[in-house]
Amino acid sequence: MPSTVVITPPGALLSPAEIREQLLLPASVSDGALTRLIKVATQEVDGPDGWLGRALGEQVLELRDDRFPASWCDGLRLYCEPIGAIVSVTYDDAAGVAQTIDPADYEKHGAALFARRGFSWPTTSNRPESVRVRYHAGQPGTDVPERIKHAIALRVGRLYRFAVSDPSLKKEVVEGVGSTEWDLSGAGALVADRAIADLLGPCRIWIS
Question: Using one digit for the tens of pLDDT, what is the confidence trace for 171-180?
Protein backbone atom coordinates (compact mmCIF):
# COMPACT_ATOMS: atom_id res chain seq x y z
CA MET A 1 0.00 0.00 0.00
CA PRO A 2 1.31 3.47 -0.83
CA SER A 3 2.05 5.88 1.97
CA THR A 4 2.89 9.58 2.10
CA VAL A 5 5.36 11.07 4.57
CA VAL A 6 6.38 14.62 5.39
CA ILE A 7 9.96 15.49 4.43
CA THR A 8 9.85 19.23 5.11
CA PRO A 9 6.95 20.40 7.29
CA PRO A 10 5.16 23.70 6.63
CA GLY A 11 5.65 26.83 8.66
CA ALA A 12 3.04 28.00 11.13
CA LEU A 13 -0.15 29.36 9.55
CA LEU A 14 -0.93 31.59 12.53
CA SER A 15 1.26 33.50 14.95
CA PRO A 16 0.78 33.63 18.73
CA ALA A 17 -0.13 37.31 18.38
CA GLU A 18 -2.90 36.48 15.90
CA ILE A 19 -4.25 33.81 18.24
CA ARG A 20 -4.28 36.21 21.18
CA GLU A 21 -6.15 38.81 19.15
CA GLN A 22 -8.68 36.39 17.71
CA LEU A 23 -9.39 34.55 20.96
CA LEU A 24 -9.10 37.59 23.23
CA LEU A 25 -6.41 35.89 25.30
CA PRO A 26 -4.37 37.84 27.86
CA ALA A 27 -0.83 38.95 27.04
CA SER A 28 0.41 36.71 29.85
CA VAL A 29 -0.15 33.63 27.69
CA SER A 30 3.35 32.84 26.41
CA ASP A 31 4.38 32.61 22.78
CA GLY A 32 5.85 29.18 23.47
CA ALA A 33 2.61 27.74 24.79
CA LEU A 34 0.57 29.11 21.90
CA THR A 35 3.15 27.99 19.33
CA ARG A 36 2.89 24.41 20.57
CA LEU A 37 -0.91 24.50 20.52
CA ILE A 38 -0.93 25.96 17.00
CA LYS A 39 1.31 23.10 15.86
CA VAL A 40 -0.94 20.47 17.43
CA ALA A 41 -4.14 22.01 16.05
CA THR A 42 -2.63 22.31 12.56
CA GLN A 43 -1.34 18.72 12.53
CA GLU A 44 -4.85 17.50 13.24
CA VAL A 45 -6.05 18.77 9.86
CA ASP A 46 -2.95 19.19 7.67
CA GLY A 47 -0.88 16.82 5.56
CA PRO A 48 -0.92 13.04 5.08
CA ASP A 49 -2.36 12.31 8.52
CA GLY A 50 -4.66 15.31 8.72
CA TRP A 51 -8.45 15.22 8.62
CA LEU A 52 -8.67 17.55 5.61
CA GLY A 53 -6.72 15.27 3.26
CA ARG A 54 -4.86 18.26 1.86
CA ALA A 55 -1.65 20.22 2.37
CA LEU A 56 -2.00 23.68 3.86
CA GLY A 57 1.28 25.59 4.11
CA GLU A 58 4.16 24.93 1.69
CA GLN A 59 5.80 21.58 2.40
CA VAL A 60 7.72 18.73 0.79
CA LEU A 61 6.11 15.27 0.82
CA GLU A 62 7.20 11.87 -0.41
CA LEU A 63 4.98 9.15 -1.86
CA ARG A 64 6.32 5.68 -1.13
CA ASP A 65 5.03 2.63 -3.00
CA ASP A 66 6.15 -0.93 -3.62
CA ARG A 67 6.21 -0.73 -7.41
CA PHE A 68 5.47 1.42 -10.44
CA PRO A 69 2.18 1.11 -12.38
CA ALA A 70 2.01 -1.79 -14.83
CA SER A 71 1.56 0.51 -17.85
CA TRP A 72 3.05 3.83 -18.94
CA CYS A 73 -0.47 5.24 -19.19
CA ASP A 74 -1.25 4.45 -15.55
CA GLY A 75 -0.33 7.26 -13.18
CA LEU A 76 1.03 7.38 -9.66
CA ARG A 77 -1.52 9.20 -7.50
CA LEU A 78 0.03 11.96 -5.39
CA TYR A 79 -1.77 12.92 -2.21
CA CYS A 80 -2.39 16.12 -0.27
CA GLU A 81 -3.31 18.68 -2.92
CA PRO A 82 -2.46 21.19 -4.14
CA ILE A 83 0.46 19.38 -5.77
CA GLY A 84 3.44 21.44 -6.86
CA ALA A 85 6.68 20.59 -8.65
CA ILE A 86 8.27 17.15 -8.56
CA VAL A 87 11.58 17.08 -6.69
CA SER A 88 12.73 13.59 -7.66
CA VAL A 89 11.58 10.10 -8.61
CA THR A 90 13.79 7.33 -7.27
CA TYR A 91 13.47 3.56 -7.04
CA ASP A 92 15.34 0.42 -6.05
CA ASP A 93 16.07 -1.67 -9.15
CA ALA A 94 15.83 -5.46 -9.37
CA ALA A 95 19.23 -5.74 -7.71
CA GLY A 96 18.17 -3.45 -4.87
CA VAL A 97 20.32 -0.54 -6.02
CA ALA A 98 18.84 2.95 -5.75
CA GLN A 99 18.29 4.70 -9.09
CA THR A 100 16.93 8.11 -10.15
CA ILE A 101 14.65 8.59 -13.14
CA ASP A 102 15.44 11.44 -15.51
CA PRO A 103 12.80 14.20 -15.20
CA ALA A 104 12.50 14.09 -19.01
CA ASP A 105 10.92 10.63 -18.68
CA TYR A 106 7.88 11.62 -16.61
CA GLU A 107 5.29 14.36 -16.40
CA LYS A 108 2.74 15.50 -13.86
CA HIS A 109 -0.92 15.96 -14.71
CA GLY A 110 -2.99 17.32 -11.86
CA ALA A 111 -2.39 15.09 -8.87
CA ALA A 112 -0.85 12.17 -10.75
CA LEU A 113 2.56 11.36 -12.21
CA PHE A 114 2.79 9.62 -15.59
CA ALA A 115 5.60 8.15 -17.64
CA ARG A 116 6.09 10.08 -20.86
CA ARG A 117 5.01 8.33 -24.04
CA GLY A 118 7.78 6.03 -25.20
CA PHE A 119 9.16 5.49 -21.70
CA SER A 120 8.23 2.45 -19.61
CA TRP A 121 8.30 2.43 -15.84
CA PRO A 122 11.32 0.35 -14.79
CA THR A 123 11.27 -2.93 -12.91
CA THR A 124 11.81 -2.58 -9.18
CA SER A 125 12.96 -4.88 -6.41
CA ASN A 126 9.31 -5.31 -5.34
CA ARG A 127 10.35 -4.70 -1.77
CA PRO A 128 8.36 -2.30 0.42
CA GLU A 129 8.76 1.36 -0.56
CA SER A 130 10.90 0.56 -3.62
CA VAL A 131 9.39 3.59 -5.39
CA ARG A 132 9.73 7.09 -3.96
CA VAL A 133 8.31 10.30 -5.42
CA ARG A 134 9.31 13.49 -3.64
CA TYR A 135 7.26 16.60 -4.42
CA HIS A 136 6.16 20.02 -3.27
CA ALA A 137 2.64 20.43 -1.92
CA GLY A 138 0.51 23.09 -0.27
CA GLN A 139 0.42 26.81 -0.84
CA PRO A 140 1.81 29.94 0.82
CA GLY A 141 0.29 30.54 4.21
CA THR A 142 -1.27 33.77 2.94
CA ASP A 143 -3.28 31.73 0.41
CA VAL A 144 -4.73 29.26 2.90
CA PRO A 145 -8.50 29.90 3.17
CA GLU A 146 -9.42 32.08 6.11
CA ARG A 147 -12.09 29.60 7.22
CA ILE A 148 -9.36 27.00 7.78
CA LYS A 149 -7.24 29.44 9.78
CA HIS A 150 -10.26 30.42 11.85
CA ALA A 151 -11.03 26.75 12.56
CA ILE A 152 -7.44 26.18 13.67
CA ALA A 153 -7.67 29.22 15.95
CA LEU A 154 -10.89 27.89 17.51
CA ARG A 155 -9.22 24.54 18.08
CA VAL A 156 -6.27 26.27 19.74
CA GLY A 157 -8.77 28.00 22.01
CA ARG A 158 -10.37 24.67 22.93
CA LEU A 159 -6.98 23.12 23.71
CA TYR A 160 -5.87 26.14 25.71
CA ARG A 161 -8.99 26.37 27.83
CA PHE A 162 -8.93 22.66 28.55
CA ALA A 163 -5.32 22.98 29.72
CA VAL A 164 -5.89 25.93 32.05
CA SER A 165 -9.36 25.21 33.45
CA ASP A 166 -10.07 23.16 36.53
CA PRO A 167 -13.20 21.08 35.91
CA SER A 168 -13.81 20.92 39.65
CA LEU A 169 -14.41 24.70 39.73
CA LYS A 170 -17.70 26.23 38.67
CA LYS A 171 -16.56 29.83 38.95
CA GLU A 172 -13.22 31.61 39.21
CA VAL A 173 -13.00 35.19 40.54
CA VAL A 174 -9.96 37.41 40.01
CA GLU A 175 -10.01 40.51 42.21
CA GLY A 176 -10.12 43.71 40.19
CA VAL A 177 -10.51 41.83 36.91
CA GLY A 178 -13.76 39.91 37.00
CA SER A 179 -14.95 36.34 37.09
CA THR A 180 -15.06 33.33 34.79
CA GLU A 181 -17.75 30.71 35.03
CA TRP A 182 -16.93 27.28 33.60
CA ASP A 183 -19.39 25.37 31.47
CA LEU A 184 -19.40 21.93 33.07
CA SER A 185 -22.22 20.60 30.90
CA GLY A 186 -20.00 20.36 27.81
CA ALA A 187 -22.53 22.30 25.76
CA GLY A 188 -20.05 25.07 24.97
CA ALA A 189 -17.47 22.55 23.81
CA LEU A 190 -20.02 20.92 21.51
CA VAL A 191 -20.89 24.29 19.98
CA ALA A 192 -17.20 25.01 19.36
CA ASP A 193 -16.64 21.58 17.82
CA ARG A 194 -19.65 22.04 15.52
CA ALA A 195 -18.36 25.44 14.42
CA ILE A 196 -14.93 23.94 13.64
CA ALA A 197 -16.52 21.08 11.65
CA ASP A 198 -18.74 23.50 9.71
CA LEU A 199 -15.74 25.66 8.81
CA LEU A 200 -13.57 22.75 7.69
CA GLY A 201 -16.18 20.54 6.01
CA PRO A 202 -16.31 22.32 2.62
CA CYS A 203 -12.49 22.26 2.41
CA ARG A 204 -12.09 18.51 2.95
CA ILE A 205 -10.72 16.38 0.11
CA TRP A 206 -12.25 12.91 0.07
CA ILE A 207 -9.75 10.29 -1.04
CA SER A 208 -11.20 7.27 -2.81
Answer: 555 456 556 5
